[in-house]
Amino acid sequence: MDKTKTASVLTCPECGHRKEEQMPTDACQYFYECEQCRTVLKPKSGDCCVYCSYGTVACPPIQQNKSCC
Questions:
Q1: What are the pLDDT digits (tens) for 39-50?
Q2: In degrees rounded to 5, what are phi and psi of residue 51?
């Protein structure tokens, strides 16, 4: 049984806005635009995607101990 979570709450580091988003299971999301302040988020150094940097849950490939993108 697959226990991979596909929803993550992203928090904008600029304005603190939080929104739950569905993560893609077959690709990394490198950019994300905050709907409140319009800041475009990019992964922090060493992270593969915005979910690993700013989300409450790591992306599906990382959850499954696979290499991401």
A1: 999 999 999 999
A2: -70, -35
